[in-house]
Amino acid sequence: MANSSVVYVFDTSSFIVMENYYPEQFPTFWSNLTELAVANRIQSVSEVWKELNRENTRDFLVNWIKDRQEIFPTPDAKETKFVAGIFAVPAFQALVKQKARLKGSPVADPWVIARAAQLGATLVTEESQDPALLRIPKVCTHFNVASMNVQGLLAQEGWKY
């Protein structure tokens, strides 16, 4: 693997995109991803776990994440404090939609940003990099947290299929 020190924090959207990488057609992808997980270079948060459990995820992805529940920890005090800092920026309060707040739905966005910031990790998300939109990459830029999508991870790790 090309970049043996980078830790990646995965957002729900990136796990969902990986459903398109069927293990039968992309066995090396899943082998490489598993190696990253074993090396503690893939992280996420409990809210992503909750969001994935609400999605209609494919069995192979469900099994893969169930075998790696340790990458979905409950946020710690530092992460909670960082999330408070995100919401201290008035423009970022809309990161959690009112509907989600009212329904009590899991909302992973601020938590994955906080986890990546605390770990000095790169956040992996499929959300738009358009700076005009209030999405994870915009908040990451504000807090100097690196972000990329799954394709960026493939390139950074030097994986080719």
How does this structure look, described?
The protein is of the alpha/beta class. The chain has a single domain, classed as 5'-nuclease (Rossmann fold, 3-Layer(aba) Sandwich), CATH 3.40.50.1010. The protein has 9 helices and 4 strands; from the N terminus they run E-H-H-E-H-H-H-H-H-E-H-E-H. The chain has a 4-stranded parallel sheet. Helix 8 (136-142) links the parallel strand 3 and strand 4 (147-148). The chain is globular, with a radius of gyration of 15 Å. The two termini are 14 Å apart. The mean pLDDT is 89.
Q: Find the CATH topology.
A: Rossmann fold
Helix content: 40-55%
Quickly count the domains: 1
pLDDT averaged over residues:
89
What multimeric state do the chains show? single chain
Trace the largest sheet across and list its strands. Answer: 2-1-3-4
What overall form do the CA principal axes indicate? globular
Q: What is the name of the CATH architecture?
A: 3-Layer(aba) Sandwich
Query: What is the radius of gyration computed over CA atoms, rounded to a whole number of angstroms?
Result: 15 Å
What is the percentage of strand-forming residues? 5-15%
Number of strands: 4
N-C termini distance: 14 Å
Largest sheet: 4 strands, parallel
Which structural class fits the helix and strand makeup?
alpha/beta
CATH class: Alpha Beta
User: Low-confidence segments, ≥5 residues, pLDDT <50?
Assistant: none
Write out the CATH superfamily name: 5'-nuclease
SSE blueprint:
Blueprint: E1 8-10, H1 12-17, H2 27-38, E2 42-43, H3 46-54, H4 59-66, H5 77-87, H6 98-103, H7 109-119, E3 122-124, H8 136-142, E4 147-148, H9 150-157
Parallel strand pairs: 1-2, 1-3, 3-4
Helix pairs in contact: 5-7
